[in-house]
Description:
- By secondary structure, this protein is of the alpha+beta class.
- It is built from 22 helices and 11 strands.
- Strands 3, 4, 5, 6, 7, 8, 9, 10 and 11 form a 9-stranded mixed sheet that branches. The protein has a two-stranded antiparallel sheet with strand order 1-2.
- A hairpin with a 2-residue loop joins strand 1 and strand 2 (227-234).
- Helix 12 (290-301) packs across helix 13 (335-352) and helix 17 runs antiparallel to helix 20.
- The protein is globular.
- Bound molecules: 3-hydroxy-3-methylglutaryl-coenzyme A and NADPH dihydro-nicotinamide-adenine-dinucleotide phosphate (NDP).
Amino acid sequence: MGIASATNAKHVPGKLRGRQANSKPLASDALPLPVGLTNKIFFVLFFTASYYLLRRWGEKARNSTPLHMLNLGEMLAIVAEIASFIYLIGFFGIDYVQNFINKSSDGPWELDDEHEDFGVIHSQKDIVSPRAQLTGTWLKESSDETIATYVGNGEVPSHSLESELGDCMRAASVRRRAVELTTGRSMEGLPLSGMDYSTVRGQCCEMVVGHVQIPVGVAGPLLLDGSEYTVPMATTEGCLVASTNRGCKAIYQSGGAISILTKDGMTRAPVVRFSTAKRAAELKFHVEDAENFETLAVIFNRTSRFARLQSIDCVLGGRNLHMRFRSTTGDAMGMNMISKGVQNVLEYLQHIYLDMEVVSVSGNLCADKKPTAINWIEGRGKSVVCEAVIKGEVISKVLKTSVSALVELNTVKNLTGSALSGAIGGFNAHAANIVSAIFIATGQDPAQNVESSQCLTLMEAINDGADLHVTVTMPSIEVGTIGGGTQLASQAACLNLLGVKGSHPRSPGANAQTLSRIVAGTVLAGELSLMSALAAGQLVKSHMKYNRSCKDICAKN
Ligand SMILES: CC(C)(COP(=O)([O-])OP(=O)([O-])OC[C@H]1O[C@@H](n2cnc3c(N)ncnc32)[C@H](O)[C@@H]1OP(=O)([O-])[O-])[C@@H](O)C(=O)NCCC(=O)NCCSC(=O)C[C@@](C)(O)CC(=O)[O-]
Ligand SMILES: NC(=O)C1=CN([C@@H]2O[C@H](COP(=O)(O)OP(=O)(O)OC[C@H]3O[C@@H](n4cnc5c(N)ncnc54)[C@H](OP(=O)(O)O)[C@@H]3O)[C@@H](O)[C@H]2O)C=CC1
């Protein structure tokens, strides 16, 4: 089967020849194609041909030569003229006509009398001709209250405010006011100023109305791999930073922790469908052929300076084929990057397997933001194991418990209890607490906390029961130091505190790897402290002290 497919492959050179009818946009559209140059060539062709023909017809009129007697040059000029005319109409004309038709049909510009509540500016609505005036300079020069009313009425699309006003802060302020007008609820308390919303636009959030404040605490120093880190944690769970801080102290006083990075590769798994399972299997064997894989890797790697395809694991589900791509992604967490590469490969494969239907670029074998066994077993992002030997005296002095109590609790709670609960990767006490606090502080995608928090905590007594050997095994830590929320000022400051801000200057990927090690090291600290509090029966007492609402809400109401 692999051979048949490989033969097919020879019909199509590395570069794709053309698009199939009604195909989706190509990933390679993202690459700088010479559309501008083509336009210029057709413009020049059109005007040169027109000029030449006019001159020739002028000469013929003077010499009384019949106009329909054409020489080769004139025939070529007419062909060039028609071709360039068709091209230019196709490129510019159709869009123009469509826009015109769309605007004149229903849509956000249609005025209706349903929203009479915003009576303040009804008179203004009558004065201006809305279709012509609700954009551009007129809109910019209107008062914020007037614009908010139009947004509230649906006459100005809320999501167009940034581009219409050319000012992200003003757009957020107007939108916020519009939300207040339509909902009748105040947004007081949600900060507006203090953030540069231009850094959010096109990268982090849409329909912005402000930002949420989350306190950031620091735990540390975390002594990890011979370096000291002060770890920023954004949380509203009182006691969490105190606990992690205590764990860091125990690790420090015991000589530090060591981390081992065993794997680094982000995954994305599209799903494609054929009319038969046999055809789907043919593609599986094609992809698994080493020579074909090399070709696919070249096509994939073209889409980024940092993404390098490592493997494609194929799983058949009837006539559907799920292909799990794995790739390095430099210092980026890499989901956008790998998705772009995958799409390019799918487009290439579609030209070989004409009967292949791309069901979705993500078919959940990836698996992104869902608890799954595949991430737990195969890993996703960075796979890290972190270990430390905690001295018995530190356990009693700092953690207020004993080696034997910790070992026993770990077996009963983190291993047996989790097994009984049917956990997938949940063999730990609270890895998710530390992972999400660091994720929020450093601008990671918080939803990836789901798989990044998969963790196996092991505790064993060593040195004849005097000391504790503790490890956390975390196969799917998905972090980046570039892209997503990492470039926002406060998140970048937290990355800077850890010395991993942005792209690593010499070895791209090293910053993100260090961040994943820090996450694992801090989880180790958190596990040590919470497990100790539970073993010592301290948990409730400590949360009453640090994590209890002290406002008498009933009295206020
Ligand atoms: C609260 C502690 C740390 C007190 O612990 P302690 O031993 O009574 O505190 P201590 O006053 O003796 O201080 C010891 C060290 O702890 C740190 N420490 C102590 N206090 C602070 C503070 N205010 N701010 C910063 N650091 C603090 C600090 O390092 C200090 O050393 P020092 O600096 O004094 O030389 C302890 O009782 C503890 O760790 N409790 C556990 C709390 C915890 O881990 N909560 C996590 C959330 S629980 C949850 O969400 C998950 C759960 C429970 O449902 C999961 C499950 O099912 O298991
Ligand atoms: N698309 C999806 O399916 C999903 C997207 N996301 C979101 O994706 C975003 C993150 O995507 P991600 O791909 O990580 O980031 P970006 O989309 O921001 O891509 C990273 C960019 O940084 C460039 N770059 C410069 N220096 C480096 C370096 N040292 N290492 C790596 N890249 C570098 C890359 O260059 P180059 O162009 O050469 O690659 C690329 O353009 C987050 O906002 C996340 O929430 C989350 C889950 C799913």
